[in-house]
Design brief:
By secondary structure, the protein is mostly helical. It is 45% helix and 11% strand. The protein has 3 domains: 99 residues, no CATH class; 91 residues, Orthogonal Bundle (DNA polymerase, domain 1); 193 residues, hpI Integrase, Chain A, CATH 1.10.443. α14 crosses α16. The radius of gyration is 34 Å and the shape is elongated.
Length: 463
Amino acid sequence: MASTKFYLDCRRSKPGVPSVMKIAIGHGNKTSYISLEVKLHPTQWDAVRGKILNHPEKQVLNAYIYEVKQIVDAHIINLTREGRIKDMSANDIRNSILAELNPEKEEKVDESLFKVRFLKFIETKKASTKETYMHTLNRVKAYVGDAIETLRFEDITLDWLNSFNIFMAQTSPSVNARNLHFRNLRAVFNNAIENEVTSHYPFRKFKIKAVETAKRSLTVEELRRLFFFNCEEHAEKYVGMFKLSFFLMGVNMIDLANLKEMKNGRLDFNRAKTGHLYSMKVEPEAMELFDKYSGENYLLFILDHWTNDEFFRRKMNKELQKVGPMQRKPGRGGKKEYQPLFPMLTSYWARHSWATIASELDIANETIAEALGHEYGNRITNIYIRKNQKKVDIANRKVLDWVLYGKIDGKIVVKPGTPEFFGLDRKDAVALGLVKEEPGVEKKKRGRPRKNATPEVEAEVAA
């Protein structure tokens, strides 16, 4: 059963300023509070006896707070008798009591509370963004516990942020992962300041410094090895989707899976992450993959066979990380042993790889940004600049010509099918099945020369 007691909330009171008297409702190891709208100095409250002292209106106030407490206790008894309380949290009990105390008055929401403002800020965000922010709110809740219900912006100081960082580091060693939460917090603070909820801003001195992430792109030669390697049959579709993503300038898997229409050899769609409009030309190499892996309800097969793109992406990453030479252990049905070409490879590497290679080909940064669906330069200026999609189409063709055919500006710089094309020596290229043995080269004969062998035979064996 829930319990109640009086509680003088002095947690955020400044010296000399009276604090608010509340009724604390404890239930299921959680506590919620009902404000009595009575303010007292600590010297005016006897916590042991539960009475107001040294106050000019102590008799009236004591009668009032005990009357409210009787109503609260009676309400809890009724909830217990009805069997409803076992399925209620402390907050649920509090809301039920407030509905009885103020049947025609909704409780005023205090937007100066951090959690209240946080939830209001994200309510218009799309589902994926909202999920990311809720993860941040859950991390704050894990740090401060039940105090999140009364946490104010002014409580989040520079020391608080540093301590929160240390707390998160215990379970999240990645600096960039923690930075995501701090950027979310900063966005909520900026919104609160814009709406004059607070003027407090601890991020003036707390700097969010990104750490360079590990390599997530393949070189031109590495891409060629992946694209031309003869992988297992069941893995072909996963490599095919990686190639298609690359051929479409690193389009994300969620966008690729949800494509439904192609018009005049172009794809026009809004990117799921940002909502920005994408328009891209489908090159012949990409069209071939669309034909090979076509779907029934979508352009591709992914969502015809998988519940959502996330499940497919996880399976795809798992298979991409196994692409490479494979051998079976001795014995019937021996276990497969892989020698992966790129054991850390994921679908997202297609996007990084395209951008990196485009930069190496001296394609302008603004063109690369447009190809990736990013903004470049001044956001306002960009509104008045008519996007030249032809530049993006030319850039993509230039990248594909270099990766697939070794061409730059129409001229073959490195011949396809050669060890140099794959960045390997001939022995390693042959071992991976990327190039064939040179014709006309015979293997050296082994063994000792025959007796009475001619000088020509002895010379051949010696060679």
